Amino acid sequence: MPRFTRREVFGATAGALAAKSAIAATPRNETTKRGAMLLSEVFVPGDPKLAVARQVGVNHVILGANSLLSKVPRDRYLETLEKAKADFRAIDMDIVGVESHPVAAEKIKLGLDGRDEEIENYQAAIVALGQAGIRMICYNFMAGLGWYRTRTDVPERGGALTSEFDNAVAKQQGLTQWGEIPEEKIWANMEYFQKAVIPVAEKAGVYMALHPDDPPLSPLRGIGRIVTSAANYRRIMNIVPSRVNGVTFCQANFVLMGADIYSLAAEWIRQNKIFFVHFRDVQGNKEKFRETFHDNGPTDMVRMLQIYGQSGIDMPIRPDHAPTIAGESNDHPGYAFGGKVFAFGFMAAAMKAKGVQYR
User: Fold this and answer.
1) pLDDT tier at 31 (50, 70, 90 boundaries)?
2) Residue 73 CA to chain centroid, in angstroms?
3) Dist. CA 242–CA 209, nearest whole Å
4) What pLDDT does 130 receive?
5) Edge-to-edge strand ranges of the sheet holding 282-285
6) Number of Cβ within a 10 Å radius of residue 75
7) CA-CA distances (angstroms) from residue 284 to 12, 164, 297?
8) What is the CA radius of gyration of the chain?
9) Which CATH superfamily is domain 30-354 in?
10) Taking the model in full, what pTM does it have?
11) What are the start-end ranges of the H helices in the chain?
């Protein structure tokens, strides 16, 4: 498989990142024949990492909208989003989506009392996002537990720290406060949610990009999980068939599912079902794996970028779960920024070398 040495990556990156564009991101449009990969990262206004992101050529923002909208009533959602847009435009960055939910959704996922109020908030957030011209929501349906690891200080290359999941350890940790929740309950909750929000999203022109369960196995500490296979994705997208009902292609999780991710990504690209990419790699299988640097895992990452580049649309992409490198705090494993700087360089150099448009 093609590999770049670190010297080749950083050599090519110097020229690649110097060619950054200040062109604003365009709303998703299946009819357009042009398109580019939009180098993105999750931020809120005022994030101290923004200066570094701009310096290495990141022009696009995935907004951590929940932390903003959860503080205001529904009638201020649009005002809040417009203010965030203006804050980022002031530093030449554009919001191209939100992650992981625009408002609280845990009662929705667990099927608890109060979920209808959460759904009303969610519907209002979708409408506001559409009015603000923010066209993508990366959401998940990991009830009770989010993305989950059993260790966060595993050595990677050169002693960098990365995270690991070991299901044997997870089983020893026992049930969560939610006890046992069967998959059938999660399926019912997903159907309830989809039927309530997908029609609203379609009318608003907001694309719902479902993130896979991480890890993609069920149950996890007693809680059923359903976003664990390509077959289940197809079932979910058929609950309410719509042009806006699609996928966040967090590619490492599809590797862990045992999928042929090259053919699967190409299939869903042809069907206009991938709305957002989480670019990362892992070593192992869904029972036990660890995160890797973006050039140090089993996946042909350059080939994946070429596949995504065939979409013909402007598609946000961000490097996810980078190792913590020397000199950084490991207080937020996976989200320290040094490893992501390396990842952005790798991505830009690879796309420039292979003729994939990006900005």
Assistant:
1) very low
2) 26
3) 12
4) 98
5) 151-155, 161-166, 288-291, 282-285
6) 9
7) 30, 10, 10
8) 19
9) Divalent-metal-dependent TIM barrel enzymes (3.20.20.150)
10) 0.90
11) 6-18, 50-55, 66-69, 77-89, 106-110, 115-132, 167-173, 183-204, 230-237, 251-256, 261-270, 301-308, 338-354
